[in-house]
Design brief:
4-stranded antiparallel beta sheet; two-stranded antiparallel sheet; 39% helix; alpha+beta; Muramoyl-pentapeptide Carboxypeptidase, domain 2; 2 domains
Length: 193
């Protein structure tokens, strides 16, 4: 598994990618197996520190991503946006099918234990603060950080964590860069992992 695979609207997943993923369940959601093991370790460490972290979302099939896309576009059109406006608005926080990191099994949407949807101020919660300090120790990065929207193409999502492996996560976190920047500057060394 290439834990540094870049997936976005410009870099869709290769056809048949889902067939190569071995999934494992964590908190009722599925993740790529190594990602799941590291996520379990991270959640256990947070719990040991008195921080309960919930898991909202993990692996999504392309069909499920399509359903989410259509639902959100319809919701925005119901608010008075045109179809094109709704697509542009939804595209700031939700990827098209085939372009979502959730389809890799490497992404987790995390939350406070009682949440049933994403929390825009998650970074201000004890859970968000704990993850900011410790996620990289388990190979996870905040995938869509603030002030990197012009590079990632996605609005700041303080709940969306992505597994990239411990060494890459440490370097990305310590440098204050996003995955795209990491791959641009360090791809020769790390993409062969």
């Amino acid at each position: 598994m290439n834990y540094l695979i870049l997936v976005n609207k410009f870099e869709p997943l290769p056809a048949g990618f889902a067939d190569s993923i071995k999934l494992k369940e964590v908190c009722g959601r599925f993740f790529e197996s190594q990602t799941a093991e590291c996520l379990e370790q991270m959640l256990s460490a947070a719990s040991s520190d008195g921080i309960g972290i919930g898991v909202l979302s993990g692996y999504r099939s392309e069909d499920y991503q399509q359903m989410l896309w259509e639902k959100e576009v319809s919701r925005e059109m119901g608010k008075g946006r045109s179809y094109e406006e709704a697509k542009a608005f939804v595209g700031k926080t939700l990827a098209l099918p085939g372009c979502s990191e959730h389809s890799t099994g490497l992404a987790a949407d995390l939350c406070t234990p009682s949440a049933d949807d994403v929390e825009p101020l998650f970074h201000k919660t004890p859970q968000g603060k704990w993850l900011c300090c410790h996620a990289h120790e388990y190979g996870f990065i905040l995938r869509y950080p603030r002030l990197k929207e012009h590079i990632t193409g996605i609005d700041h999502e303080p709940w969306h964590y992505r597994y990239v492996g411990q060494e890459a996560a440490r370097l990305i976190t310590e440098s204050g860069i996003c995955l795209e920047e990491f791959l641009h500057f360090y791809s020769d060394k790390y993409t062969t992992c």
